[in-house]
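For reproducibility, we list the full input for the S-adenosylmethionine complex.
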Amino acid sequence: MSEIGSLLQEFAHCSALLQQFRPYWQLVPFAWQQLPWQNPALEQKLLSLSEQDLDAIDKNPALQQQHFGEFFGCVFRLNHYLTTAVTGQTRFAQCPSELKPVPFWLANGISGRKLAQIDAFARQLPASTLPMLEWCAGKGHLGRLLAWQFNRPVTSIEWQQPLCEAGEQLARQFQLPQRFVHADVLSPHGSAVLAPQQRVLALHACGQLHISLLQQAVQAGCQQLHLAPCCYHLIADEQYQPLSTVAQQQDLALSQHDLKLAVQGQVTAGARVEKLRHTEVHWRLSYQALRAELTGDQRYRPLASVSKQGFSGDFADFCHWAASQHQLDVPANTDWARYLAAGAAQALLVRRIELVRHLFRRPLELWLVLDRALYLQQQGYQVALTAFCDYQVTPRNFLLSAIRDILPH
Ligand SMILES: C[S@@+](CC[C@H](N)C(=O)[O-])C[C@H]1O[C@@H](n2cnc3c(N)ncnc32)[C@H](O)[C@@H]1O
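The corresponding predicted structure, in tokenized form, follows.
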């Protein structure tokens, strides 16, 4: 396992970059009627790009660099560094484990992508005889494969009873030393499973669930932690509360909207999902044009989130639903096509703004992960940060590993 530079240096670098370019990423694109920046060269570049260009560049780091390198060079030095898997020397005394190939019967029912993530995650774990705890386990695929791989007991904690039952059934079927605890990890019953002599594992635990894990594991004195975080924006507070003292001193005052930027890498989205996402933006902005005209208020007012299915129906139905959210009546003779045209122009502007904003998603994610890493370091852990698999396998490919010596009694 290799470090990405020194954690503190990397954090300082990342913080400075995000501070310097704050007006380019810390904004709500929907709220703008024109490009938000007084930067004629950047404006010219953005307006020269077709819709196809916007799509292609947004998905491709090399194209991003080609088009925007002259404006945001230091971002690319950082992004380039992070989009591929990092391999190399371990910082910990123990070497990563030698793994046996997983037999087909054990992998049955696990999607190819999840299996690749589990395999890559497992390869980063240093050898250890500690019992394992799998946090927010789902059906416990990771735990099951590790129980088989290392022949060590695994406790998997998960709050959805059917997932616990399905996982328990598989563990019984393969006679593996894995048990499930059906509990809310945010409750005292959930945190009671944490113990000092433990290796805690969390693959893709969402915001508050992994923040709480870090805080509770520190309190419980857990010896090892291996965490791949995801969904940084799913937190209890409106504003992000940095965990480490260093990040508290360089607070970026991140809202949940800002945090969402960190998870906007869509490498796994299929064509259908992508089309629905475009329709969603188009319809929301078309409705916004209608609302502005009905109320005379040009300011953007957000709407509740809706499942993507809501955007496979009819625009008029969507508008009636949206208007009811804002206590408005939609006139019977509404010219839908006119608002859809206004929305389409606004959606194109949003895509141009997002194209620039997206250049900062990986630095923001790194800032958030480094905050967690520095918090653990501050609590006496040796910490390493890696990209445990390629970005294409999962964009949430940061792995935070922390080990501490057994504390004297
Ligand atoms: C993104 S999934 C990850 C599942 C699994 N680790 C994986 O990588 O496939 C997050 C899991 O956390 C569970 N979860 C969400 N909130 C929870 C809570 N408060 N307590 C326990 N589990 C929770 C969900 O039911 C879900 O199975």
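The radius of gyration is 23 Å. The first strand starts at residue 132 and ends at 134. Both points were considered when choosing residues for closer inspection.
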